[in-house]
C-alpha cells in the first residue's frame, strides 16, 4: 500500500467559541476522486483551508504524501503538492490568462531574484520553460484562444476553467476544487464532470471536490464525505450516502423525514 | 556565442544611454541641467517606489528614510576619502572610484535597513503598513538628528560635487531597466500576483512574505542610490531633505503616473519636477496648486495618467513577452 | 518626588490634548475606515479661527470669560462645518473606491490647508489679522489673565487647570454621546457595517457628516486649549500634534473611542517621563517608537478588534 496522497487525522478548527470543523478524518490515495458535501456552513471550505494551510488546525494532523504539513504556510504546502480553487473565484484579475497560469509555475523556477535583472541563461531558460508549461495547461482546459486576455474579461465559465488550469500548472498531487460547478448551466456542468474525470485520468491526481449540485458530485465521485455543522455525519459510496437518513435530514430537515416515514437511527439527530 | 549575445543584450541600455548622457554633460544651460538632474533623481525614487506600491500593491510611505540611509553612508565615505589618491590613479579618477564605491555602499546599507524594516512590517496590511513605514521614516530622521557622528540637525556640509548628468543618467537607466526586467520575469509576476490576490498567490506557491520583503529591499536600495546622488548634487546632507513629506511627494509621483506603470512614474516624476520649476516664481502658490491638483486627480482619475499601461504596449517590438492585449490576435 | 508630580501634571496636560485630537481620528476611521490626514490641520484651523474671533470680539483689549466662551464655541462650530465640507467634497465621492485613493486625497487636503494658510493675505493685509495669515507665527490673545500656582512645588497655572477640566468634560460628553444616545449607536452601527446599517434605516451620510463635525469640533477645542498657554500659532502647528494624536489613536485601537482617550493620555505621559528622565531630544521620536512597537506586536492596539478576511 503506497503512501496516501492526503491523510487528515482528527483535524479540528475552532474559531473562538465556534467549532467549524470537528475531528475531521480523510484519506485519499493517488487517483481517487472524492466528493465533500453538506449544507451551507457545514465546514467544507474550512476543511480545505485546513488542508491547504490557510488556517492552521486547532488540533489534529495533516499529512501530504507522508509529510506532516499542519502549521506550514500555504505556499509550502502548495510546493508539497496540494493545489486548490476557490469558492468565489480568485483569479489575478488584471493579469492575462497566460500570466495567471505562469504564476503557478513560479515555484519550479531555478534562477533567483537578481537573475531577472542580469538576464542570465538560467533565467531565460526558466522563462521559456514556464511559458511553455503554462501554454500546455491553457490548452488542456481549452483556453488557448484567451491566452493574452485579461482574466477579468473572461466569461464566467472560462474563469472557472482558468482557475483549474492555474491550479493544475502548479503540479499538484492533490487537487482541491471548491464548488467548481457553481454558476454553470446544465450542459456546462456535464462538460465539467467529464473534464474532472479526464484530468484525474491524464494527470494521475487525487481530486477532492466540494459541490452542492448532487448530480455533479454523485456523477463524478467514487466516494463521498458528508459534513454538517463541522461534523462528519456520513461517508461511503454515493449510492449508500444518498439513502442515509442522517444525510437526508441534514439537507431537508426532520419534517421531511417524518413525512416520508423514515426512521432516524438513534444518535443520528443533530 | 549565445552567452555573449545574452550578455550584450543585458547591458545594451547602458551602452546606448550612458554615452548619450556623457555627450549632454555640461552642454546644457546650467540651470536646466541642474533641474534635469533633480528630475532624474525623482525618476529613480518614483520607479523604485513603484516596485513596492505599484507592482506588489503594498503601501509604503517611508521611502525617504531609505534615501537618508543611502545618502549618509555615501556622504561619510566621500568625506572620509577626500583627497586620497589610489595607487596609480590620478586624483580625478580616484574621486570617481570613491564616488562609485560610496553609492554602492549607500545602496547596500539602504537595502539592509530595508530588510530590518520590511521583515516585521510586511506582515501588516494596507493602512497599517503605511503607518509603520511612515513611523520608521521619522524614527530614522530622529535618530540622525540626535547622532553627532551624522551631524545631527545641521547635517554634513562641504560634500564634494560628484553628481553629474552621467551619474544620474546611469542611475535612472539602471532603475528603469531593473523595474522593467523585473516586471517581465516570473519574479515580477509573483509580485503582481501578490498585488492582485495575496491569498491566491500564496496558494499557488508564491512565498508572499518573502517576495514582499524582496520588493521592499530592492526599492530601498535604489532609494539609497537616489539619496547618495542627491546629497552630492546639493553638496549638503541634512535630515530635512528626508522627512515624510518627501516620502509623500514620491508617493504622489507614483500615484499620478499610475501605480504599476513604469512609464507613468518616469513621466510623472519628470512632469512634476518640471511643473515645480516652471512655477518657481509663484513659489508660494506652488504647493497649493500641487495639493489642488492632487485632490482633483484623485476625484477624477485615481488610476493615474497611465494606469497600469506602459509606453511599450504601443510598440510591439519592445514588449514584454506574453503581455499583449486581446486585439493582438492568435498565438500558436 | 516633585519632579515626578511635575511630569505627571505636564503629561496629563499634553495627553488630554492628544486625546481630544485622537478622538477625531478614531471616530472617522471607525465609520469610514479612512485615516484622515487632514485632521491635524483642522486643529490648526481651529486655532486660527479662535485668533480671528478673538480679535473680532476685542479680546485683547477687554478679555472676559464670556468672550472666551464665545470664541471657544464659535471656533468649534466653524471647524465642525469645515469637517463636514471636507467630507462632503473630498471623501464622499470616493467612498466606493479603494481606500488608498481617499488616503491620498486626505493628504491633498492636508497640504491645501497647510499651504493655503501660508499664502499672502487676500483680506485685511494691513491689519493685524490678515487672511490667509501667512507663514509667520501670530500671537494668540490671552482670554483671561494667567495665574500660577505652586502646590507641593509643582508648577501649574490656571490655564492648565481649565484646560484639563475642559478636556475631561469634553471627553465625558463624547463618551456619553457615543454610548448613551441613539446617534452614538448609529455611529457604532455604521462603523461595524455601513451597508447593513443603511438597510436598517440609518442615514449613513448624515451619521458620517456628524462624526466629522464632532471630531473636528474636538480638534478645535484642543487647539484653543493649547493656544491659550502657548501663545504663538502658525499654519504648520498641526503637523506634529496631528501625527502624535494619530499614534495615540492607533495605540488605543483605531476605531475605538475609549482607546483614543487612553492612548492620548499614555502618549502624553510617556513623552513627559521619557523626555524628562532620559533622552529629552528624542521626545518627538517617542511617539514613533511607540507606534512601531504597537504595530509590530499588537497592530489592533490596546482595545482594538481584528478583522479577519474570509477565504
Notes on the structure:
- The complex is a heterotrimer of chains A (270), B (332) and C (311).
- Chain A is of the alpha/beta class.
- Helices cover 40% and strands 22% of the residues of chain A.
- The longest helix of chain A is centred in the middle third of the chain and has 20 residues, at 121-140.
- Chain B has one domain (2-243).
- Chain B is built from twelve helices and two strands.
- In chain B, 55% of the residues are buried.
- Chain C has a two-stranded antiparallel sheet with strand order 1-4. In chain C, strands 2-3 form a two-stranded antiparallel ribbon.
- The radius of gyration of chain C is 19 Å and the shape is globular.
- Chain C starts with a helix and ends in a 14-residue tail after the last helix.
- Classes of the chains: A alpha/beta (270), B mainly alpha (332), C mainly alpha (311).
- Chains A and B meet through helix 2, helix 3, helix 4 and helix 5 of A and helix 1, helix 6, helix 7, helix 8 and helix 9 of B.
What does the secondary structure layout of this molecule look like, with pairings?
The complex is a heterotrimer of chains A (270), B (332) and C (311).
Chain A: E1 6-15, E2 18-28, E3 33-37, H1 44-52, E4 59-64, E5 67-68, H2 74-80, E6 82-84, H3 97-104, H4 115-118, H5 121-140, H6 156-169, E7 174-178, H7 186-203, E8 206-210, H8 214-220, E9 223-228, E10 231-236, H9 238-243, H10 245-252, H11 254-259
Parallel strand pairs in A: 3-8, 3-9, 6-7, 7-8
Antiparallel strand pairs in A: 1-2, 1-4, 4-5, 9-10
Helix pairs in contact in A: 3-5, 3-6, 5-6, 7-8
Chain B: H1 2-24, H2 30-55, H3 63-80, H4 91-121, H5 126-145, E1 156-157, H6 165-183, H7 186-196, H8 198-203, H9 208-234, E2 236-237, H10 244-257, H11 262-278, H12 283-300
Antiparallel strand pairs in B: 1-2
Chain C: H1 2-32, H2 39-57, H3 65-91, H4 99-116, E1 138-139, E2 148-149, E3 156-157, H5 158-180, H6 182-192, H7 194-199, H8 204-229, E4 232-233, H9 239-252, H10 257-277, H11 283-297
Antiparallel strand pairs in C: 1-4, 2-3
Question: What is the general shape of chain A?
Answer: globular
Largest interface: A-B, 49 and 42 residues
Tell me the strand order in the biggest sheet of chain A.
Answer: 6-7-8-3-9-10
How far apart are the termini of chain B? Answer: 28 Å
Strand portion of chain A: 15-25%
Shape of chain B: globular
| SSE class of chain B | mainly alpha
Quaternary state of this entry equals heterotrimer
Question: β content of chain B, as a range?
Answer: under 5%
Could you describe the largest sheet of chain A, including whether it forms a barrel?
6 strands, mixed
What order do the SSEs of chain B take from the amino end to the carboxyl end, as H and E? Answer: HHHHHEHHHHEHHH
Kindly state the number of beta strands of chain B. 2
SSE series of chain A: EEEHEEHEHHHHEHEHEEHHH
Overall pLDDT confidence of chain A: 88
The main sheet of chain B orders its strands as: 1-2
Distance between the termini of chain A: 36 Å
Tally of distinct domains of chain B? 1
Radius of gyration of chain B: 20 Å
Amino acid at each position: 500500500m503506497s503512501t496516501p496522497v492526503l491523510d487528515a487525522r482528527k483535524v479540528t478548527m475552532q474559531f473562538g467559541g465556534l467549532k467549524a470543523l470537528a475531528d475531521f478524518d480523510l484519506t485519499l490515495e493517488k487517483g481517487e476522486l472524492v466528493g465533500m458535501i453538506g449544507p451551507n456552513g457545514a465546514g467544507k471550505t474550512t476543511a480545505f483551508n485546513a488542508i491547504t494551510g490557510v488556517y492552521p488546525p486547532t488540533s489534529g494532523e495533516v499529512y501530504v504524501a507522508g509529510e506532516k504539513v499542519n502549521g506550514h504556510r500555504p505556499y509550502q504546502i502548495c510546493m508539497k503538492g496540494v493545489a486548490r480553487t476557490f469558492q468565489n473565484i480568485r483569479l489575478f484579475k488584471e493579469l492575462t490568462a497566460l500570466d495567471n497560469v505562469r504564476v503557478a509555475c513560479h515555484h519550479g523556477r531555478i534562477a533567483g531574484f537578481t537573475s531577472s535583472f542580469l538576464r542570465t541563461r538560467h533565467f531565460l531558460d526558466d522563462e521559456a520553460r514556464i511559458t511553455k508549461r503554462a501554454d500546455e495547461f491553457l490548452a488542456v482546459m481549452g483556453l488557448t484562444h484567451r491566452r493574452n486576455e485579461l482574466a477579468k474579461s473572461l466569461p464566467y465559465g472560462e474563469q472557472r476553467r482558468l482557475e483549474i488550469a492555474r491550479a493544475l500548472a502548479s503540479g499538484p498531487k492533490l487537487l482541491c476544487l471548491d464548488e467548481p460547478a457553481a454558476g454553470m448551466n446544465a450542459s456546462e456542468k456535464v462538460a465539467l464532470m467529464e473534464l474532472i474525470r479526464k484530468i484525474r485520468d491524464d494527470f494521475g491526481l487525487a481530486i477532492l471536490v466540494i459541490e452542492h449540485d448532487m448530480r455533479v458530485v454523485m456523477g463524478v465521485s467514487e466516494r463521498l464525505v458528508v459534513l454538517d455543522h463541522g461534523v462528519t455525519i456520513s461517508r461511503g459510496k454515493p449510492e449508500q450516502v444518498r439513502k442515509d437518513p442522517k444525510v437526508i435530514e441534514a439537507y431537508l430537515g426532520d419534517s421531511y423525514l417524518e413525512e416520508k416515514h423514515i426512521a432516524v437511527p438513534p444518535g443520528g439527530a443533530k | 556565442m549565445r552567452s555573449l549575445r545574452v550578455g550584450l543584450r543585458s547591458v545594451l541600455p547602458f551602452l546606448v544611454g550612458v554615452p548619450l548622457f556623457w555627450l549632454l554633460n555640461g552642454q546644457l544651460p546650467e540651470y536646466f541641467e541642474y533641474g534635469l538632474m533633480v528630475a532624474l533623481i525623482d525618476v529613480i525614487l518614483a520607479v523604485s517606489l513603484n516596485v513596492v506600491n505599484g507592482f506588489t500593491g503594498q503601501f509604503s510611505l517611508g521611502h525617504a528614510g531609505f534615501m537618508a540611509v543611502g545618502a549618509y553612508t555615501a556622504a561619510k565615505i566621500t568625506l572620509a576619502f577626500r583627497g586620497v589618491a589610489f595607487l596609480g590613479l590620478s586624483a580625478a579618477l580616484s574621486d570617481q572610484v570613491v564616488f562609485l564605491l560610496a553609492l554602492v555602499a549607500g545602496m547596500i546599507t539602504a537595502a539592509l535597513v530595508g530588510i530590518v524594516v520590511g521583515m516585521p512590517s510586511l506582515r501588516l496590511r494596507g493602512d497599517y503598513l503605511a503607518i509603520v513605514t511612515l513611523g520608521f521614516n521619522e524614527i530614522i530622521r530622529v535618530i540622525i538628528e540626535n547622532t553627532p557622528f551624522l551631524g545631527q540637525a545641521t547635517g554634513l556640509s562641504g560634500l564634494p560635487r560628484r553628481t553629474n548628468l552621467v551619474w544620474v543618467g546611469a542611475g535612472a537607466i539602471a532603475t528603469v531597466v531593473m523595474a522593467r526586467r523585473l516586471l517581465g520575469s516570473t519574479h515580477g509576476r509573483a509580485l503582481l500576483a501578490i498585488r492582485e490576490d495575496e491569498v491566491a498567490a500564496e496558494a499557488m506557491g508564491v512565498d508572499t512574505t518573502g517576495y514582499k520583503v524582496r520588493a521592499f529591499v530592492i526599492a530601498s536600495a535604489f532609494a539609497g542610490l537616489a539619496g547618495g546622488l542627491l546629497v552630492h548634487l546639493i553638496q549638503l546632507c541634512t535630515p530635512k531633505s528626508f522627512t515624510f513629506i518627501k516620502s509623500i511627494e514620491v508617493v504622489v509621483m507614483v500615484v499620478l503616473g499610475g501605480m504599476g506603470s513604469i512609464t507613468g512614474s518616469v513621466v510623472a516624476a519628470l512632469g512634476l519636477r518640471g511643473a515645480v520649476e516652471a512655477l518657481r516664481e509663484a513659489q508660494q502658490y506652488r504647493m497649493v496648486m500641487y495639493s489642488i491638483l492632487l485632490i482633483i486627480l484623485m476625484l477624477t482619475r485615481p488610476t493615474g495618467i497611465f494606469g497600469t499601461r506602459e509606453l511599450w504596449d504601443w510598440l510591439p517590438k519592445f514588449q514584454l513577452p506574453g503581455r499583449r492585449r486581446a486585439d493582438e490576435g492568435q498565438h500558436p | 518626588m516633585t519632579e515626578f508630580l511635575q511630569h505627571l501634571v505636564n503629561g496629563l496636560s499634553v495627553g488630554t490634548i492628544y486625546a481630544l485630537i485622537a478622538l477625531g481620528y478614531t471616530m472617522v476611521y471607525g465609520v469610514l475606515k479612512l485615516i484622515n490626514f487632514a485632521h491635524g490641520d483642522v486643529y490648526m484651523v481651529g486655532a486660527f479661527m479662535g485668533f480671528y474671533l478673538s480679535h473680532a470680539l476685542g479680546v485683547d483689549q477687554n478679555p472676559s470669560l464670556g468672550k472666551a466662551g464665545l470664541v471657544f464655541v464659535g471656533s468649534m462650530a466653524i471647524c465642525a462645518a469645515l469637517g463636514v465640507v471636507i467630507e462632503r467634497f473630498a471623501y464622499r465621492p470616493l467612498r466606493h473606491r479603494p481606500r488608498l485613493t481617499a488616503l491620498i486625497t486626505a493628504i491633498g487636503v492636508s497640504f491645501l490647508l497647510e499651504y493655503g494658510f501660508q499664502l499672502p493675505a487676500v483680506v485685511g493685509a494691513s491689519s493685524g489679522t490678515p487672511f490667509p495669515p501667512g507663514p509667520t507665527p501670530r500671537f494668540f490673545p490671552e482670554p483671561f489673565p494667567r495665574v500660577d500656582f505652586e502646590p507641593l512645588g509643582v508648577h501649574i497655572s490656571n490655564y492648565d487647570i481649565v484646560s484639563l477640566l475642559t478636556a475631561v468634560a469634553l471627553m465625558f460628553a463624547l463618551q456619553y454621546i457615543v454610548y448613551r444616545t441613539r446617534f452614538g449607536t448609529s455611529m457604532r452601527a455604521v462603523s461595524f457595517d455601513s451597508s447593513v446599517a443603511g438597510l436598517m434605516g440609518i442615514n449613513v451620510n448624515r451619521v458620517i457628516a456628524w462624526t466629522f463635525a464632532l471630531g473636528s469640533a474636538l480638534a478645535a477645542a484642543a487647539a484653543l486649549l493649547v493656544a491659550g498657554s502657548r501663545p504663538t500659532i502658525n499654519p504648520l502647528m498641526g503637523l506634529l500634534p496631528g501625527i502624535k494624536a494619530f499614534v495615540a489613536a492607533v495605540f488605543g485601537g483605531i476605531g475605538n473611542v475609549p482607546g483614543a482617550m487612553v492612548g492620548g493620555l499614555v502618549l502624553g505621559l510617556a513623552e513627559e517621563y521619557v523626555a524628562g528622565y532620559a533622552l529629552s531630544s528624542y521626545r518627538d521620536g517617542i511617539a514613533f517608537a511607540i507606534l512601531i512597537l504597537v504595530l509590530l506586536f499588537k497592530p489592533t492596539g490596546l482595545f482594538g478588534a481584528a478583522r479577519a478576511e474570509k477565504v
